[in-house]
Amino acid sequence: MALALDSSIKLASGHSIPRLGYGVYQARSTECENGVKDALKSGYRHIDSAQAYHNEDIVGRAVAASGVARSEVFLTTKYMPSHQVIPASDVYSVIQKSLKRIDNGGRYIDLMLIHAPFGGEQGRKNNWEALAKAQKEGWIRDIGVSNFGVPHLKSLPAPKPSINQIELHPFCQQREIVTYCQAQGIAVQAYSPLIRADKDRYKNPVLVGIAEKYKKEVAQVLIRWSLQKGYIPLPKSVTPSRIKSNAEICDFELDADDMKALDGLDEGAKGACTWNPVDQA
Which parts of the sequence bind substrate (predicted)? Predict the structure, then answer.
């Protein structure tokens, strides 16, 4: 599988999204701004933020100050829904605030997701209606969801989501959701692809053995596995050297046996290392 740092996937809308993203979860202030600048300097062209991360404005400033044209950077953010049913008009007002924060010129957002399947079926429909309206108006180019299970996806009204962003790594593979999304033409983004650098899991003999075989770091093996599965991984780091090394995954390819060995590490739902509300009612 030939991959380059500028490789992309075409979404159902016709827009393209870079295969590798840079996540800014829990990154605040200077470390977030410097992280985004370092990521862009290292060749990333896809930044993933969220209202709940409280750093959309920092991402917007960093992109504007980076020297990289806004048109070359794919910006994602997420609307954090309530557990209550909120009118679509109110949701629309809230998502408008993200446009002013994350896009320094207030022009457009490349992708906006519903962060979680909260609010029940009616709440999810209202949230989706607000995002769909913004997409029709053109200031959000693609819309999608995050942490949605198969029942949530099946009950969502048109249009079909471009993306479902879920926790994905060898220990938490969420295969039912992935299979459904792939069958429906919904691209799959992988958050926590580095298992939050879990020290115990990074000592797993399968991971260590494969990393030694390719003379790569465990983190690079995890990102490469995700890419070869067809996902869009969103590794997060605020350390310049790690940001750079996480992007150095185009000069090797995991063979079929190694992919099978990594697939065999799946622990199902208990393998999740983060918040994973895919079974929310």
Answer: 115
pLDDT category at 281 given cuts 50, 70, 90 is confident
Identified catalytic residue from 44, 53, 79, 231? 53
Q: What CA–CA distance (Å, rounded) separates 104 from 58?
A: 10
Answer yes or no: is 267 within a domain. no
Range of the domain at 44: 8-196+231-250
Nearest residue to 145 via CA among 106, 191, 103: 191
Confidence of residue 104 (pLDDT cuts 50, 70, 90): confident
How many Cβ atoms sit within 10 Å of the Cβ of residue 194? 26
CATH at residue 28: 3.20.20.100
Indicate whether 263 belongs to any domain. no
Look at residue 204 and tell me if it is in a domain.
no
Domain count, the chain: 1
Task: Quote the mean pLDDT of the chain.
Answer: 96
Percent of the chain having pLDDT more than 90?
A: 94
Phi, psi of 11 (to 5 degrees): -85, 170
Q: Note whether residue 266 is domain-resident.
A: no
> Which residues are annotated binding-site positions for substrate?
115
**In angstroms, rounded to a whole number, what is the distance separating the alpha carbons of residues 125 and 210?**
44
Mean pLDDT of 227-253: 96
**Residues in the annotated binding site:** 115
Active site residue 92: no
Q: Is the bond preceding 161 in cis, omega lying within 30 degrees of 0?
A: no
DSSP assignment of 47-110: EE--GGGT-HHHHHHHHHHSSS-GGG-EEEEEE---SS---HHHHHHHHHHHHHHHSTTS--EE
